[in-house]
Amino acid sequence: MADEASVAQPTLVSLLICDQVIDDKLTNKKSAIGLFNTVLVPKVPTVMQQVAVMASLTEITGRVPAELRLVRDADNSVLFSTRGHVDAPNPLATVDLVFTMQGVRLPAPGQFAFELLCGGALLGRRRFQLVVRPPQRRGAPPRPPSGPGPPGQN
Questions:
Q1: pTM
Q2: Radius of gyration (Cα) for the chain, nearest Å?
Q3: Tens of pLDDT along 119-128?
């Protein structure tokens, strides 16, 4: 078996964040459902009840250690991490990795990222925003969208 440090790094084809990934066992096709870049919550800290990350890799040579981690951009702190290994039948194959998580805690609003590392090297990251929704006043009409009004009214 080759030394992990001497193994070439895989190529990241895509990295998606979504609500769930459906894996059709008959066709081996995967469907990413509910893709998102922003999470809107009423308050923080909050818990994401379910989130899935799908990564597609190619040019995998040998058995490569992989790590998915959730990082807060403000201070680069790692909030969550999981590790395993990935291999492929041949270097030309594309391998889809699906990570399904429940109960992911997010402490404060801001920007976060899921990062995928192989052999300790960062292959890529996918950012998302956590935004706290302003409270709606009871009985208040919805706020009009900002921007110019109807034509002729300035």
A1: 0.82
A2: 20
A3: 999 999 999 9
